[in-house]
């Protein structure tokens, strides 16, 4: 590929820069460029008189302010995004003719938006919920949107039920509660009466629904798509994003507390990581099936409530995405970005998944109302990097100034241009799948097994993960006021596992399930976070210290932790630099602005002063971190308090006296994430 083509592939940032403006050091003007002499006072008839209608500056300023908000997304309203690039590892020409999947030397610009699903824009980010994981690839063949979630399945099998699902999830309309939570009657009433949701609910009640970081969660395309190569051969494909840092989660008590301590926890983590040069990385994986293998499984490969177990259909890692640039303006980019699963390029096509088919209609309809008209593709964040030409004209927010009199196809005045492009020259052509059948409102019998894969998921969990699922069900159903709904849910999930459902029933005052559990015995190890990567890089360590500490010793330990890729941050009683027996050290937080839930591990450096008020605050941090199964460390001066708390010798509590061996042991403990055997 030529250098020019490479430059074109990286032109998205330059394109956005055309629309970027810095107001610093500039004269104040109206939107028409008129310099303004006064911006504090409206135009009046006398100092104390009425405001005059002729004050065009006041009118412009207030009108713009009155219209600064657009409707938030009905779902996925709470989101945050970043720019990056994608590179394929090897040519995928045997499977697809998609241009951005051909040349490993080409970096394709991307824009990724992460989001919660149920809450409003002002809700907290660590709530129990699925997470959106949507990627816009700015390719030379047009924009391609991979619009997915961090859970590989969905609640429903047919898009016609999507409004019902969302109505049930959202706050109940008579009192608008609860916000950003499924722990209420209407959601669980929907679940009990729409049992195709069983598999998705198992994921939603698992640790997958409370990720530690947006950098530490998987992404999935959810649906079955098609790859089509130059020869017209089709493969069914499912898409996966695998985080290089591994898949890690919060614990529920921690997630709830973070929602109060820092409702922006996930976006702050993403922003700071990119700002510090710790760029999040995700490998793109695909599962591929030939059309001949479509019916060889005990599930329907088009059913969006089913996974293709990785042990049966391996994931092939084909490229890496790196997020390396924060947005310049959240509204202009994150809020105005318009994703659509129908934004495809040659070589990527659709399957007959009925949920996907409905989404292909719905997304354009949504953008029309949210972004004010049909020209949302002209907003800078949505513009493709390749040229676009057609006979569409006018409408709200039109930015293109089309020259000439012709705006219709089949013409002589413009030599019948713009003209369609044959498939052989890069024009998009739909895969010619043979389709026949009667017009019916029904679904295939192959979609009717709702519990086998829910049972597969349960079988795949480690013991701590299973206990967390039971606790999640117990919390959510404990918030349900209608006893009949509680009982219906218990009976429903008795089809998954009788012991699990019986424990839930006992916790919420319901009767044991009467249903008969699925007899599925197989498991999929890939579904358990027990088998994820354990990479300590970028983990945050809360370092508790007080004035009088051996700052020379502490400085050495901090340097060693940083050398391991960790991010130590000092917490003390005051923000003034620590003064001890060595250099002064910067304090990042006080006990009032920090909490143990904001860190992956706690290190107590100790204090020569050893005051009781200080020690009591330390005890609080350490007890909470211990209860959340996190690594705890102390060296030299700090070990006495761990001994007093009877924590020395507990799993994940590191108290080596030698600084070098301490850092090695502490880093190893942090890489394990949690110590469930406490």
From TrEMBL:
One of its GO terms (cellular component) is cytosol. There is a cross-link at residues 340-363 (3'-histidyl-3-tyrosine (His-Tyr)). Pfam families: Catalase, Catalase-rel, Catalase_C. Residues 1-33 are annotated as: Disordered. One of its GO terms (biological process) is hydrogen peroxide catabolic process. It catalyses: 2 H2O2 = O2 + 2 H2O. Residues 1-15 have a biased composition (Basic and acidic residues). Residues 29-417 form the Catalase core domain. One of its GO terms (molecular function) is heme binding. The active site is at 76, 149. Decomposes hydrogen peroxide into water and oxygen; serves to protect cells from the toxic effects of hydrogen peroxide. Belongs to the catalase family. HPII subfamily. This is Catalase. It comes from Paenibacillus lemnae. The lineage of its organism: Bacteria, Bacillati, Bacillota, Bacilli, Bacillales.
């Amino acid at each position: 590929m030529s250098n020019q083509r490479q430059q074109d592939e990286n032109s998205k940032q330059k394109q956005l820069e055309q629309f970027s403006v810095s107001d610093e050091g500039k004269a104040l003007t109206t939107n028409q460029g008129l310099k303004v002499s006064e911006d504090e006072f409206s135009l009046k008839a006398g100092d104390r008189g009425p405001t005059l209608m002729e004050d065009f500056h006041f009118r412009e300023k207030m009108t713009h302010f009155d219209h600064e908000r657009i409707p938030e997304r009905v779902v996925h309203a709470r989101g945050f995004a970043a720019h990056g690039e994608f590179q394929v590892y090897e040519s995928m020409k045997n499977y697809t003719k998609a241009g951005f999947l051909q040349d490993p030397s080409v970096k394709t610009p991307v824009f990724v938006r992460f989001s919660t699903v149920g809450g409003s824009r002002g809700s907290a980010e660590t709530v129990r919920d699925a997470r959106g994981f949507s990627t816009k690839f700015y390719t030379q063949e047009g924009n391609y949107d991979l619009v997915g979630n961090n859970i590989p399945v969905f609640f429903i099998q047919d898009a016609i039920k999507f409004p019902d699902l969302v109505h049930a999830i959202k706050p109940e309309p008579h009192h608008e509660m609860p916000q950003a939570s499924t722990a209420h009657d209407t959601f669980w009433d929907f679940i009990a009466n729409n049992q195709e949701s069983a598999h998705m609910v198992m994921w939603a009640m698992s640790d997958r629904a409370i990720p530690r970081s947006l950098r530490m969660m998987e992404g999935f395309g959810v649906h079955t798509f098609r790859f089509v190569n130059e020869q017209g051969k089709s493969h069914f494909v499912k898409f996966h994003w695998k985080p290089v840092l591994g898949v890690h989660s919060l614990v529920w008590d921690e997630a709830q507390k973070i929602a109060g301590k820092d409702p922006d926890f996930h976006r702050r983590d993403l922003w700071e990581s990119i700002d510090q040069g710790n760029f999040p990385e995700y490998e793109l994986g695909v599962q591929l099936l030939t059309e001949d293998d479509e019916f060889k499984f005990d599930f329907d490969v088009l059913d969006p409530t089913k996974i293709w177990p990785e042990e049966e259909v391996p994931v092939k890692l084909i490229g890496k995405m790196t997020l390396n640039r924060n947005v310049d303006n959240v509204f202009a980019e994150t809020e105005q970005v318009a994703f659509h699963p129908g934004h495809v390029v040659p070589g990527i096509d659709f399957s007959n998944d009925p949920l996907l088919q409905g989404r292909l209609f719905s997304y354009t309809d949504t953008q029309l109302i949210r972004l004010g008209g049909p020209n949302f593709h002209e907003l800078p964040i949505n513009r493709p990097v390749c040229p676009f030409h057609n006979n569409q004209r006018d409408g709200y927010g039109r930015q293109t100034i089309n020259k000439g009199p012709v705006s219709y196809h089949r013409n002589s005045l413009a030599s019948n241009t713009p003209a369609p492009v044959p498939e052989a020259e890069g024009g998009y052509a739909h895969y010619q799948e043979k389709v026949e059948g009667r017009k019916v409102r029904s679904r295939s019998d192959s979609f009717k097994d709702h519990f086998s894969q829910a049972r597969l998921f349960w079988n795949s969990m480690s013991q701590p993960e299973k206990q967390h699922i039971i606790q999640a069900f117990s919390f959510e159903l404990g918030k349900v006021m209608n006893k009949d709904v509680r009982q219906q849910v218990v009976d429903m999930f008795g089809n998954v596992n009788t012991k699990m459902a019986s424990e839930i029933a006992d916790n919420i005052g319901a009767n044991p399930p009467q249903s008969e559990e699925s007899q599925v015995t197989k498991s999929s190890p890939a579904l358990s976070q027990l088998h994820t990567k354990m990479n300590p890089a970028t983990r945050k360590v809360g370092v508790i210290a007080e004035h009088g500490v051996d700052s020379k010793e502490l400085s050495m330990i901090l340097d060693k932790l940083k050398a391991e890729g960790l991010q130590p941050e000092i917490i003390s009683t005051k923000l003034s630099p620590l003064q001890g027996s060595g250099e002064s050290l910067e304090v990042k937080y006080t006990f009032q602005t920090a909490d143990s839930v904001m860190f992956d591990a706690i290190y107590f450096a100790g204090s020569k002063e050893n005051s009781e008020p200080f020690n009591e605050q330390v005890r609080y941090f350490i007890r909470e971190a211990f209860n959340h199964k996190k690594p705890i460390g102390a060296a030299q001066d700090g070990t006495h308090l761990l001994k007093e708390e009877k924590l020395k010798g507990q799993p994940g509590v590191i108290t080596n006296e030698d600084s070098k061996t301490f850092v090695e042991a502490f880093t190893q403990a942090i890489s394990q994430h949690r110590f469930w055997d406490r």
